[in-house]
Amino acid sequence: MKIIFAGTPEFAAVALADLHQAGHEIVLVLTQPDRPAGRGMQLHASSVKQFALAHGIEVLQPLSLRMDSADPRRAAEARAAHARLAGTDYDLMVVAAYGLILPASTLALRPCINIHGSLLPRWRGAAPIHRAIEAGDRETGVTIMQMDEGLDTGPMLLAESVAIGAHETTGQLHDRLAALGGRLLVAALRRMEHGTLAAQPQPEAGVSYASKVGKQEAALDFSRDAALLARKVRAFNPFPGAHAQVGGVALKVWGAEALAAGSAAAPGQVLAADPVHGIVVACGGGTLRLTELQKPGGKRLPAAEFLKGFPLEDRRFD
C-alpha cells in the first residue's frame, strides 16, 4: 500500500520501521517540527524524522494542519501541507502519536487509521500508558482504529491486550506496546488488503480520558495512600519523574513499593533509612519504601548506595 505516515516519538518510529520492513511504500512522513533538547537546548529531530531521513523518505513538518488557525503563519503552513497531501498519490494515512490534531479537511482526503496505546474506549487521549499504570489497571493493550473528528472515538479495527506487570514502569510498558503496535498495524493492513477486516464501533460504557501528564503531578504527597504513590512513581518513570522535597532539596524518586504496615508517624516522616530496611516513609495510608533515588546533579542510585552520600535517618519529607 502507498502510505502517508504521521507520527513523532519513538512509539511511532517503531511502527514506521515495521511498515517499511513489511514492504509498504511510505510516500511521505509528517512529524512535529524539530524541538530544543538536551543541556545545550539544540534543535533535535523526532525519532520518526530520523528514521525517514535515514531511509530517503520525504518529511513534512508543518506547525499545524488547521487552515482556519488564527495564527497567519500556522494557517499558511497548514494550507501548504493540505495542498501537498491532496496532490499526493496514496491509499491510506497511518497516525501514531503525531501530536497535532487532524482536521476534517485532512481526514476527508483518504482513510486514516490510528495506533492507540490502550484498549479503547479505556483511556482515550494523550497519555494512556501513564494513566493505566497510575490507575492500577491490570491490563492494557493496543487498538488499531479508524479516525474521525472525535478524540479517539472512531471505530475499532483490531485490538490486542497485554498484562501490566506489578512493577512495570511507563518506559517499560511503552516499549512493549510500541512493538505490539507495529506488529498489529502490519496485521491490520494485511487484512485490509484481503478484505477480511471489519470495523466495530467502540462500546459506550467504560470511557475514560487520559489527560496529558503535567510536571506538577509528579510531586509525591505523602498524605496520600502508599499504594497510589507507588503507582505514581512507576507511571512517571521516565517522564516527568516523581520527586519529593527533603530539607529543601528536591530528590527524584525512580523506584518505590507500598508496604502494608501502617504507622502513627506524620506523613512524610522517614521511619527507616539503612541498608537493611531501606528508606521507609510514613504515608496517609500504609508506608512507602523508596528503592531508587537521585539527588540534583547526581546519578540514579539504589537506596543503599544513595544513603551513603545523603543520609535520611530521622528526617522528614516536606
Automatic annotation (TrEMBL):
<keyword id="KW-0808">Transferase</keyword>
<feature type="domain" description="Formyl transferase C-terminal">
    <location>
        <begin position="213"/>
        <end position="310"/>
    </location>
</feature>
<feature type="domain" description="Formyl transferase N-terminal">
    <location>
        <begin position="1"/>
        <end position="189"/>
    </location>
</feature>
<dbReference type="Pfam" id="PF00551">
    <property type="entry name" value="Formyl_trans_N"/>
</dbReference>
<keyword id="KW-0648">Protein biosynthesis</keyword>
<dbReference type="InterPro" id="IPR044135">
    <property type="entry name" value="Met-tRNA-FMT_C"/>
</dbReference>
<comment type="function">
    <text>Attaches a formyl group to the free amino group of methionyl-tRNA(fMet). The formyl group appears to play a dual role in the initiator identity of N-formylmethionyl-tRNA by promoting its recognition by IF2 and preventing the misappropriation of this tRNA by the elongation apparatus.</text>
</comment>
<dbReference type="GO" id="GO:0004479">
    <property type="term" value="F:methionyl-tRNA formyltransferase activity"/>
</dbReference>
<comment type="similarity">
    <text>Belongs to the Fmt family.</text>
</comment>
<protein>
    <recommendedName>
        <fullName>Methionyl-tRNA formyltransferase</fullName>
        <ecNumber>2.1.2.9</ecNumber>
    </recommendedName>
</protein>
<feature type="binding site">
    <location>
        <begin position="118"/>
        <end position="121"/>
    </location>
    <ligand>
        <name>(6S)-5,6,7,8-tetrahydrofolate</name>
    </ligand>
</feature>
<dbReference type="InterPro" id="IPR041711">
    <property type="entry name" value="Met-tRNA-FMT_N"/>
</dbReference>
<dbReference type="InterPro" id="IPR011034">
    <property type="entry name" value="Formyl_transferase-like_C_sf"/>
</dbReference>
<dbReference type="InterPro" id="IPR002376">
    <property type="entry name" value="Formyl_transf_N"/>
</dbReference>
<dbReference type="Pfam" id="PF02911">
    <property type="entry name" value="Formyl_trans_C"/>
</dbReference>
<dbReference type="InterPro" id="IPR005794">
    <property type="entry name" value="Fmt"/>
</dbReference>
<dbReference type="GO" id="GO:0005829">
    <property type="term" value="C:cytosol"/>
</dbReference>
<dbReference type="InterPro" id="IPR036477">
    <property type="entry name" value="Formyl_transf_N_sf"/>
</dbReference>
<dbReference type="InterPro" id="IPR001555">
    <property type="entry name" value="GART_AS"/>
</dbReference>
<dbReference type="InterPro" id="IPR005793">
    <property type="entry name" value="Formyl_trans_C"/>
</dbReference>
